[in-house]
Design a protein that fits this description.
With 107 residues, the protein is mostly beta strands. Helix content is 0%, strand content 54%. It has one domain (2-105).
């Protein structure tokens, strides 16, 4: 689930980064300004074809929480965001914090 605040970039087309889950503008609309976005995903892991017979066991549930800021002005489009990934394996003590940065200029 994602929610956007404080911006009208409704004409823009957004893509989602596969690992972080962040949405960033691919095709900009006519609007300019900031778009603050936040989202959370929760996944139930039933099995793993890669960890079969391995000493590592996948965590039963995986969560991903993200926060980002898009800024569009003229021919420039920028994005910065942070994503928290919960532990991937049962023996993993802590999750991971990812940073994302995209910059685009139209010519």
């Amino acid at each position: 689930m994602d929610a956007g605040f404080f911006g009208d970039l409704s004409e823009a087309l957004f893509a989602r980064a596969p690992v972080s889950g962040q949405r960033y503008s691919v095709i900009d609309g006519t609007g300019e300004g900031f778009l603050l976005s936040a989202g959370v995903d929760l996944t139930r892991v039933i099995g793993s074809m890669f960890l079969t017979g391995s000493a590592l066991r996948a965590s039963k549930y995986r969560a991903r929480a993200r926060f980002g800021l898009n800024y569009v002005h003229g021919r420039w489009s920028n994005f910065i965001g942070w994503t928290y990934l919960s532990p991937e394996f049962e023996t993993q003590q802590t999750g991971q914090l990812l940073g994302s940065f995209f910059i685009k200029a139209r010519f």
